[in-house]
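Re: [ENG-882] Designed sequences occasionally contain unexpected residues at chain ends

Forwarding the minimal case from QA. Structure tokens:
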């Protein structure tokens, strides 16, 4: 008879543990629901962007951008209050993934930082101007990795995986490798909101579904687009020092000041992983395209295709986190290199600069 109470206690314990888990799940669910219904505090970039696109709730939507550019904006289906909050949160996620500018902290960004390893990684580093880069006259730009243009690209055949990848899956890829993090579920709030925002952009800009726009992707630069002098580490390192290191750091470590990140890292722990398509040794056409079209800021388009390839080659030799396709040994090796290489390189540089030209000769 003594066995009965012991058994009963076990059952009660198991039921209590399950009940606690259930209560926790309910609590999380309620928290998300509250967030879904709460007014959204926009980042400055998103505030001016969404205001300029006249995003307000109503039966109909007319894009001020189209009105200005074409003289007549078609009347489209409008957005509900809930749609608008999703679009706003989506813009915030792209602009400020880890919630540094958010009043409610990271939670206002669906705690998106649980999907990334770095402290400062965010989508806007590569999808500039919250994924909607334009020049001073409001022209969208070729090769600017535009998120509206990516949403309408119905033919999402991806030659790197050989699969049809939806915009949601492409976001997932970027979480994993370009942001060096973890895979959100494709129906996760972080993905759904960024999708709502991308879709809104495409509508506000009058983009047609199934159409391929020049601002989609990064306008790759294959070696056939150059004079085929071969990609050169020394030339790349030289131009990098002259034109890029001032912002991105001598070793691509980026610039962080007490107020936060100023310039993103192109190597090291805060950077994209070795399996990111941005990494020259993973895909050798994409980063050159990004650099030639988008860098240095204010002087975009001044570098020639070979130089962009040279710089990308140089950057690919700097240590960075191993991607998800690499094994644990490679990951451990990269960790060692990321720790050891920066001080070693700094030391080698002090030797070089302390040896004055005549002593070398
Ligand atoms: C290190 C740079 C980098 C970061 C950071 C980054 N991306 Fe990307 N993203 C890319 C590159 C490179 C591509 C592929 C472009 C191509 O194939 O031409 C891409 C493609 C995409 C696409 C598909 C676009 C298309 O037209 O094919 C989506 C959607 C996307 N990223 C969303 C995101 C989101 C959301 C984040 C933040 C969580 C993010 N990206 C962070 C570099 C980045
Ligand atoms: C004036 C400062 C500045 C200079 C100079 C500059 N960059 Fe950038 N770079 C940025 C900023 C800021 C971003 C983030 C995107 C944004 O905010 O527009 C960025 C983003 C990038 C990115 C994508 C971010 C990522 O995570 O991979 C790459 C690659 C890059 N720059 C390469 C270069 C190269 C190569 C040069 C030299 C030819 C260069 N940059 C010169 C400021 C600069």
């Amino acid at each position: 008879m003594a066995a009965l109470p012991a058994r009963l206690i076990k059952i009660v314990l198991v039921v209590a543990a399950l009940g606690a888990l259930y209560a926790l799940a309910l609590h999380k669910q309620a928290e998300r629901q509250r967030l879904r219904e709460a007014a959204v505090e926009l980042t400055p970039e998103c505030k001016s962007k969404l205001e300029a696109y006249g995003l307000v709730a109503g039966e109909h939507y007319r894009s001020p951008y189209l009105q200005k550019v074409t003289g007549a904006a078609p009347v489209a289906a409008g957005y509900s209050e809930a749609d608008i909050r999703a679009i706003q949160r989506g813009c915030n996620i792209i602009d400020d993934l880890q919630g540094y500018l958010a009043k409610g902290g990271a939670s206002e960004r669906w705690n998106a930082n649980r999907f990334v390893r770095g402290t400062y990684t965010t989508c806007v580093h590569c999808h500039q101007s919250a994924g909607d880069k334009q020049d001073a006259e409001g022209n969208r730009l070729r090769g600017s990795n535009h998120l509206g243009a990516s949403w309408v690209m119905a033919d999402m055949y991806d030659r790197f995986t050989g699969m049809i990848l939806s915009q949601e899956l492409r976001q997932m890829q970027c979480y994993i490798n370009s942001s060096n993090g973890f895979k959100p579920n494709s129906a996760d709030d972080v993905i759904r909101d960024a999708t709502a925002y991308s879709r809104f952009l495409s509508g506000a800009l009058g983009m047609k579904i199934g159409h391929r726009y020049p601002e989609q992707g990064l306008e790759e630069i294959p070696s056939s687009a150059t004079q085929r002098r071969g990609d050169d580490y020394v030339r790349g390192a030289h131009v990098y020092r002259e034109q890029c290191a001032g912002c991105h750091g001598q070793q691509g470590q980026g610039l962080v000041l007490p107020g936060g990140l100023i310039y993103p890292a192109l190597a090291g722990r805060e950077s994209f992983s070795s399996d990111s398509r941005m990494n020259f040794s993973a895909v050798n056409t994409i980063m050159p395209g990004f650099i030639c079209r988008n860098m240095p800021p204010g002087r975009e388009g001044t570098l020639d295709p070979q130089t962009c390839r040279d710089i990308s080659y140089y950057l690919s030799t700097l240590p960075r986190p191993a991607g998800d396709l690499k094994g644990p040994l490679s990951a451990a090796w990269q960790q060692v290199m990321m720790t050891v290489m920066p001080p070693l390189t700094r030391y080698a540089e002090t030797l070089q600069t302390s040896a004055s030209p005549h002593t070398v000769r």
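QA comment: On inspection the terminal residues look reasonable. Strands lie at 60-61, 76-77, 157-158, 163-164, 255-257, 260-263. Proposing we downgrade this to a documentation issue.
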